[in-house]
Amino acid sequence: MDVNWYDAPSGGTLLDADTITYSTDVAGTYYAEAVSTQAFCPSTSRTPVTLQIDPLPNVNDEMISFCENEDVLLQAGVTGVSYQWSTGETTPEITVSQAGVYTVEVTDPRGCSNVKTVEVTQVDLPVIENIRTENGNIVVLTSAADDVEYSLDGVNFQNQSIFENVPGGLYAISVRGETSCSNVTQDFFHLVVPKFFTPNGDGINDIFEVQGISSLSNYEINLFDRYGKLIKNSSGEPLIWDGSYNAQLLPSGDYWYTVRIENQIYQGHVALVR
After folding, report:
1. Where's the Ig-like domain (predicted)?
2. Which helix (H) or strand (E) holds 84?
């Protein structure tokens, strides 16, 4: 006996012939007609076979980023099923600390299963390569390939790597990626030294003073003339110079300074302009 398959109880379209099985992925009712292989006589009626396609568990693939040196939680996102992760766990969620592609197969009580894929990428922390003082500004250089944010206090962040007209002092420079990964922080002493001063009594730029150093205790400042003669010195106290030496006004010109803060020495020159 052979079987012919139709889409209607009578007449209709022949879907398949001479086979006891019919394969399809479309739900509906199909009709089997038995045919005698000896007399080639079809049956007087067709047998209905209803195909019901149960939906698979609903899952959605994900792409997740996580910060360097941190863990990330992966969730199957569906309940009432059994779980089989590519890592071997059988729980609704797992914690991972490595980048990669993870999968979880979820199977419902009917035996229907689906697979969710989670692609996990690691966001590397930015690296502070250099911090420098430039014309009263603080300039921060990083090796980060993506956009980063910068802060002088770890609270207020900006997109620009240059902080303009910053008062002298000690700052905790913080840099973070745009994904708000943990901050990378580095202490930096911002030394602000005037390039010139004009001690003419008009109240504007009348003195030479190193800004921001008063918050420290272990430092020393020395001032020299162009011949290397020590003009003024201060250890642990602010140095204020009005352009005189032994109560005598010194001439216009370049004078040199060294600033020692603990084991680090800064040096440069300032122009006295009369």
Report:
1. 3-55
2. strand 82-85
pLDDT digits (tens, 9 = 90+) for 62-91: 999 888 888 999 999 999 999 999 999 999
What is residue 234's three-state secondary structure?
Answer: strand
**214 by DSSP, 3-state: which?**
helix
C-alpha dihedral, 165 to 167 to 171 to 174, nearest 10°: -20
Work out the end-to-end distance of the chain between its first and last CA atoms, rounded to an integer number of angstroms. 120
- Give φ, ψ of 214 to 5 degrees: -65, -20
Can you list the domains of the chain with their CATH numbers? 2-51 (no CATH), 62-123 (2.60.40.10), 127-190 (no CATH), 196-272 (2.60.40)
Contact 103, 115 (CB under 8 A): yes
For residue 234, the tally of other CB atoms under 10 A from its CB is: 17
Closest to 236 in 3D by CA, of 256, 258, 253, 214: 214
Residues 197-215 have pLDDT tens digits of 999 999 999 999 998 887 7
Q: Provide, for the chain, the percentages of residues in helix, strand and coil under a 3-state DSSP scheme, each rounded to the nearest 5.
A: 0, 50, 50
Tokens standing for residue 64: 């997740």
